[in-house]
Write a structure and sequence with these properties.
The chain has a three-stranded mixed sheet. It has helices at residues 20-30, 49-59, 85-95, 115-125, 127-134; strands at 34-39, 42-48, 79-80, 99-103, 109-114. The protein has one domain (3-125): CBS-domain (Roll), CATH 3.10.580.10. By secondary structure, it is of the alpha+beta class.
Length: 162
């Protein structure tokens, strides 16, 4: 299965000159915490609610005047629409991200993919396999697990392990 089969193709984007307040309001209206930043349909950055909050506080930005380019990340992780969905899922896990912009070979933004989209699409295409995986018991020998001493606040770290 390819990314294009599971991605959300109709996504909202913002321009890099939009004000931070406008972008934050759009995020609130859409119920999202991440928006791609594009210029002429090309991905130039990504902005998250967390980045907005941190940059406004850290740099004392006026959200009604500061453009989103001051809060966005321009070093964006993305995937291609024709990549295999299993490969992208593994990349997302390795990169510790839940969402990725999807681009075509000309790096034009064509959608977004999330771990939730991948899980839903995989479950829909393989319902029996997914159901059997959910009901497969996992056996763990807890005696083989390492036991480490827990530390309390204020207690020095580096003591002996239990």
């Amino acid at each position: 299965m390819k990314v294009r089969d599971a991605m959300m193709p109709d996504i909202e984007t913002v321009g890099s000159n939009e004000t931070i307040r406008t972008v934050a309001e759009l995020m609130a209206d859409l119920g999202v915490s991440t928006l791609p930043v594009s210029e002429s349909d090309h991905l130039v950055g990504i902005v998250t609610a967390r980045e907005i909050a941190i940059r406004i506080a850290a740099e004392a930005l006026d959200p009604t005047r500061a453009p989103v380019r001051q809060a966005m990340s321009s070093d964006v992780l993305y995937c291609f629409e024709n990549e295999d969905i299993e490969d992208v899922s593994q990349k997302m896990g390795a990169w510790w991200v839940r969402r990725l912009p999807v681009v075509d070979r000309e790096k034009r933004l064509v959608g977004m993919i999330s771990l939730a989209h991948i899980a839903a699409r995989t479950a829909a295409s393989n319902p029996r396999e997914t159901a059997s995986e959910l009901h497969t018991p996992i056996h763990i020998d807890v005696r083989a697990l390492p036991v480490k001493r827990c530390h309390r606040l204020g207690e020095p770290i580096g003591g002996t392990e239990a």
